[in-house]
Amino acid sequence: MNNPSPLTTSIEVRFADLDAYGHVNNAVYFTYLETARVKLFREGFADLVAEGLQFLVVEASCRYRKPIGLNDEVLVDIRSAKPGRSSFTLDYRVHNRSGTLFAEARTVMVCFDAHKGKAVPLPDELRLAFETQLTP
Of the residues 59, 67, 106, 111, which has the fewest C-beta atoms closer than 10 A? Predict the structure, then answer.
């Protein structure tokens, strides 16, 4: 298997994202992660979403490395790790093109069938994508 590239999303820092110290507020980092994650699901798994499959966050963590300022370039990389029966883990790197690491984060997600109202096993299409495209 080749070493696949992560999905990378560019984030525009808004003035409203800043706290009283002029840095992106710590809670806003989770919005940046969500922006990248929604892009992943829209671009890669729109058919599954249209069928009623939802991807719910059941756990989220973030390690802040360096503050983000208003004029910083921000990129979010996503990679998959640890696919389980009905859950999977996504790892994130928040950085810029120069190599500055702003944060590292992780979310544990569960596949949830909105029609059945319960967690369901990962579809083969999703598992294959994680194993071949988003896994280091």
Answer: 59
pTM of the model: 0.89
Q: According to the model, what pLDDT value does residue 81 have?
A: 82
Can you give the residue range of the structural domain that contains 31?
7-132
The two counts, helices (H) then strands (E), for the chain are 2, 6
| Residue 60 belongs to domain with CATH number | 3.10.129.10
Instruction: Classify residue 45 by burial, with Cβ atoms within 10 Å: 0-12, 13-18, 19+.
Output: middle
Residue pair 111/92 in contact by the 8 Å Cβ criterion: no
Mean pLDDT of 85-113: 96
SS3 76: strand
CB-neighbour burial class of residue 55 (10 A; exposed 0-12, middle 13-18, buried 19+): buried
**Would you give the distance in Å from CA 43 to the centre of its chain?**
13
Tell me what the pLDDT averaged over the chain comes to: 90
